[in-house]
Specification:
- The chain is α/β, with parallel strands linked by helices.
- The protein folds into two domains: 182 residues, Glycogen Phosphorylase B (Rossmann fold, 3-Layer(aba) Sandwich); 186 residues, Rossmann fold (3-Layer(aba) Sandwich), CATH 3.40.50.
- Helix content is 39%, strand content 17%.
- The strands form two sheets. Strands 3-2-1-4-5-6-7 form a seven-stranded parallel beta sheet, sandwiched between helices.
- This is Glycosyltransferase family 1 protein.
- Keywords: Glycosyltransferase, Transferase.
- InterPro entries: Glyco_trans_1, Glyco_trans_4-like_N, Glycosyltransferase_grp1.
């Protein structure tokens, strides 16, 4: 099958959508499909990647004449399906949807974000202006939590499927760690060295991820943990909220929390091998790929019950879920105090794979979406 992926953002940018689309392209090519990408992200030439780039401030991934460029590419490629990847607001991707409809291509639109009330209102307004529900789209969401608000807006005429994000689950299985993790000397890099319960979080330090809320969560949890139990935390990632987080840690004298910055996948794998608990506290997490990596590595996960993490974490089996801030605090405290529960969840996570998140299952899910769109 000839597949054209359309995404505002792509490599060399490194973010959730960019990495996931690049991994999907690789998996589909390995499965024998002919796959190309069109993106508004500038960068070095890559095989099969069309860059439609305008000279805009801050390298914004959009083009004022994007639809015309997309139509030209679609007309010349003899593609079987256009697979468009959108966040909450993705102008270039939606140009791709419109161009594919005009070119007569079947369209699958994957929504990688959680639609909040403002976003839902925007798409209702776009329906009134353009009537996109009549375009014959097939929509996929990355989790049931992400699918619910889309179905509410799209109505019965637009199929909304759930296809998980993909992960090479075997590569995250716990194994021997080759050498120490690169990190600050005074940071909680290896909890096994001092017996402390090691709590880990991984993600972009952006306001929408509520990183300061995470620090308050850790602070509240440690205050409720008995003094004879040591607790440390490592928060991996970088972003605009890092400065505020560092100030908070200094003001609250939370030297037991480390902010080592961005890690490579190999460094994260090594970090998870030394972790006891993984925390993903964002309530509007559409999927939670970092949490899935932790679950695949055998680490108990604490997350919001209303987030996409609930698709692969069941309470008491792969981790603990909570609907409120206090629920999450209580869950972290429980896992910190109860070593037997931590061990039983860790053993379950190590012995069972999240099959629906494996690449064979993801490719099968998208194949169904493509056939539905073509039909």
């Amino acid at each position: 099958m000839r597949i054209l992926h359309v995404s505002d953002c792509y490599l060399p940018r490194l973010g959730g959508i960019e990495v996931q689309v690049a991994d999907l392209v690789r998996a589909q090519r390995e499965a024998g499909h002919q796959v190309e990408v069109v993106t508004a992200t500038p960068g070095e030439p890559l095989p099969g990647v069309h860059r439609v780039v305008a000279n805009l401030p801050f390298d914004l991934p959009v083009h004022p004449r994007g639809t015309a460029h997309l139509l030209r590419i679609m007309a010349s490629g003899r593609y079987d399906v256009a697979h468009v990847h959108t966040g909450a607001v993705s102008p270039f991707a939606w140009m791709g949807v419109r161009a594919a409809v005009r070119a007569g291509l079947p369209v699958v639109a994957t929504v990688h974000s959680m639609w909040d009330p403002v976003t839902r209102g925007m798409y209702r307004a776009l329906q009134g202006a353009f009537g996109w529900r009549r375009w014959g789209l097939v929509v996929s969401a990355v989790s049931e939590a992400a699918a619910r608000p889309i179905r509410d807006v799209a109505g019965p005429r637009v199929p909304v499927q759930v296809v998980s994000n993909g992960l090479d689950v075997t590569s995250w299985r716990p194994g021997p760690v080759d050498g120490p993790v690169d990190g600050p000397v005074d940071g909680p890099v290896d909890a096994l060295a001092d017996g402390a319960v090691h709590v880990v979080a991984v993600g972009r330090l952006a306001p929408r991820k509520q990183p300061l809320r995470l620090l308050k969560l850790l602070e509240a949890a440690r205050a409720r943990v008995p003094g004879d139990i040591a607790m440390r935390a490592t928060i991996v990632g970088d972003g605009p909220a890092r400065g505020r987080m560092e100030r908070y840690l200094r003001e609250r004298r939370m030297g037991w929390v480390a902010l080592p910055g961005r890690y490579t996948r190999e460094q994260i794998r090594a970090l998870l091998a030394a972790a006891d608990v993984f925390v993903a506290p964002a309530p509007r997490e559409s999927f939670g790929l970092a949490a899935l990596e932790a679950r695949a590595a055998g680490v108990p996960v604490v997350a919001r019950a209303q987030s996409g993490v609930a698709d692969f974490v069941s309470p008491g089996k792969e981790g603990l879920l909570g609907r409120t801030f206090d629920d999450l605090v209580a869950s972290v405290v429980r896992l910190t105090r109860d070593s037997a529960l931590r061990q039983s969840i860790a053993e379950h996570n190590r012995e069972t794979e999240p099959v629906r998140c494996s690449w064979p299952a993801v490719l099968e899910g998208f194949a169904r979406c493509y056939e539905l769109a073509r039909g």
